[in-house]
Amino acid sequence: MNEAIVVGVNDSPSSEAAMGWAMHRAATLKLPVQLVHAVDDRWAYDSVGYNEWIRESGINFLAAAKDRAAKIEPTVKVTTDLVSGGAGYALGKRSKKAAMVVIGSGHGWAGGSLTDRALQVAAVARCPVAVIGEHDMTNRKGIVVGVDGSEESTQAVAFAAAEADRQGQELTVLHAFLTPEPWVTRGVPRTNYFEVITEEERVVLAETVAGLADKYPDLVVHQVLDTHTRPAEALLAAGATAQLLVVGSRGRGTFKRLLLGSTAHAVLTKLPCPTIIARISPVKHSDESTA
Q1: Angle at Cα 158 formed by Cα 152 and Cα 161, nearest 5°?
Q2: pLDDT tens sequence across 121-163
Q3: Alpha-carbon 272 to chain mean position
Q4: Which residues fall within 8 angstroms of residue 189, CB to CB, at 6 or more apart?
Q5: Residues 6 or more apart from 290 whose CB is under 8 A from it?
Q6: Is 225 strand, coil or helix?
Q7: Do residues 179 and 198 lie in contact, with contact meaning Cβ atoms separated by under 8 Å?
Q8: Residue 95, SS3?
């Protein structure tokens, strides 16, 4: 049995966009869709009837959402699931048996629904997570993937390449990093210091895309090495005209215990286009505790 695309739904415009995006993907891949609506009734007092009213509202909302989904792609099987508690926890739990989790971007202000839902889900999910905003996709083309040499970014490239090949899109593999500021290198011997660093990162980029030509002979791949821009800023700029942006769940930064890397976090808070956090399989880091 094919695993479903799980979609977190609420009454926001970005959630509606996420449902539409998921339905189109499900129709193409011939997958079922499960619409999940979380009723966070932990604050309510059952003695005054709030809990029952909230649940009835949730049931009605899901029924209407299912009807709208069926009109988008009538061939896709759609089921619904009403859950109690936080949306992040509910979707994270269901990600263990999902092909993908799809969620709307919500609002970008601090403490808004983006912080409460999309970031939480992207941090804890066990499968790829697509975060969809209210973007005008007119004249957008190409798939962009960010790399940094980590195992997570290698998985992201594999995912993005498969997507680009399936959709007939060109793939841009972007590796961005800032060379050290002049004050950092004071006292360093006057050698080809910057050239050595750049060449090492160029090798990282080349190794990351190695094998794609053999696996996808018709796929056009662009390798971009940006030594003047921070990774998140470079990805946001590239994603502004892209059809899809793919990033790993975290990179090779210092804080290995973070569930979601700083670059992925920054991209999601300023979402430039539909973005997928391509968590494919767990990666064990040497500094992680086995406790």
Answers
A1: 135
A2: 877 888 999 999 999 999 999 999 999 888 888 999 999 999 9
A3: 12
A4: none
A5: none
A6: strand
A7: yes
A8: helix
Identify the residue whose tokens are 């799980």: 6
CB 213 within 8 A of CB 111: no
Residue 229 has pLDDT above 50, yes or no: yes
* Cβ atoms 212, 219 nearer than 8 A: yes
What residues pair up with 146 in beta bridges, in sequence order?
174
Burial 66-87 (b: 16+ CB within 10 A, else e): beebeebbeebebebeebeeeb
Helix axes 262-269, 231-239, angle to 10 degrees: 40
DSSP string, 121-167: HHHH-SS-EEEE-----TT---EEEE--SSHHHHHHHHHHHHHHHHH
Strands 33-39 and 78-84: parallel
CB neighbours (10 Å) of residue 5? 25
Specify the pairing of strand 143-146 against strand 171-176. Answer: parallel
Cα torsion for 274, 285, 254, 203, to the nearest 10°? Answer: -70
83 touches 37 (CB < 8 A): yes
Q: What are the helix (H) ranges across the chain? A: 13-29, 50-72, 87-94, 113, 119-124, 151-167, 193-209, 212-215, 231-239, 262-269
Task: Quick: pLDDT tens for 38-90.
Answer: 887 665 555 555 677 788 899 999 999 999 999 999 999 999 999 987 788 88
- Per-residue DSSP letter, 3: P
What end-to-end distance do the CA atoms of the chain give, in Å?
34
